[in-house]
Amino acid sequence: MKAKVTTIALVLLFLTLGAEAELCKARSRTFKGRCTRNDNCVAVCMTENFTGGYCHGVVERHCMCTKKCGEEPPEEPGEPPEEPRQMMA
Question: PANTHER family from the xrefs (predicted)?
Answer without folding.
Answer: DEFENSIN-LIKE PROTEIN 1 (PTHR33147), DEFENSIN-LIKE PROTEIN 11 (PTHR33147:SF106)
